[in-house]
Design goal:
This is DinB family protein. The structure is a single chain. By secondary structure, the chain is mainly alpha-helical. It is 54% helix and 4% strand. A two-stranded antiparallel sheet has the order 1-2. Strand 1 and strand 2 form a beta hairpin. Helix 1 runs parallel beside helix 6 and helix 3 runs antiparallel to helix 6. It is globular, with a radius of gyration of 17 Å. 26% of the residues are buried.
Length: 182
């Protein structure tokens, strides 16, 4: 792979990295900083790929793909911030009673499917950010089954969810065009 980057072994040169890697202080800045970092990492791992590449499955029998990850993370954002934290009784996205893995299984190499997935993901991220911004504190809690869940727990879960899936995205991207890391 030919590159004009100063550091060809890195995803992007440090001065071009859109992620804020400055140190953080305090719970709010730390949690939101890490979540933003991983959201941007997902976008970076998908950057420059066409519909066929984004929809390319990993290794059989897995249905995992980068496009599936985008759809899955839109679904996770929607679930935790809309359905759980805001207690809205709305249909799940990328899910059906017949197929609990529709986010991955419904992936096809089509530009409209890709556009829809990105639009859904961006809308869910924006909705989550608006909810978090409006929350009185990270102590806000809501019922979840027989337990309760605090906003801070959801944020930590989202960081974990993105970090795990960004690892998957690293491997998927490397299989597509050899790009790795960072």
């Amino acid at each position: 792979m030919t590159t004009d980057r100063k550091h060809p072994d890195m995803w992007v040169d440090p001065e071009d990295d859109p992620r804020d890697q400055s140190s953080t202080t305090g719970e709010r800045q730390t949690l939101l900083g890490y979540l933003e970092f991983y959201r941007l990492t997902l976008k970076m791992k998908c950057d420059g790929l066409n519909a066929e590449q984004l929809a390319r499955r990993s290794v059989p029998p897995s249905t995992m793909s980068l496009l599936g990850l985008i759809r899955h993370l839109a679904r996770v954002e929607h679930h935790w911030f809309v359905r759980v934290m805001q207690q809205q009784q709305v249909d799940r996205i990328y899910w059906s009673a017949d197929d609990g893995d529709l986010d991955f299984n419904g992936v096809v190499a089509d530009d409209e499917v890709v556009s829809r997935a990105w639009a859904d993901w961006e809308a869910q991220v924006a909705a989550a950010e608006a909810y978090v911004e409006s929350a009185a504190s990270f102590d806000v809690s809501v019922p979840l089954g027989e337990e309760t869940v605090e906003l801070r727990d959801v944020l930590v879960h989202m960081i974990e969810e993105y970090a795990r899936h960004c690892g998957h995205a690293d491997l998927l991207r490397e299989c597509i065009d050899g790009r790795t890391g960072q």
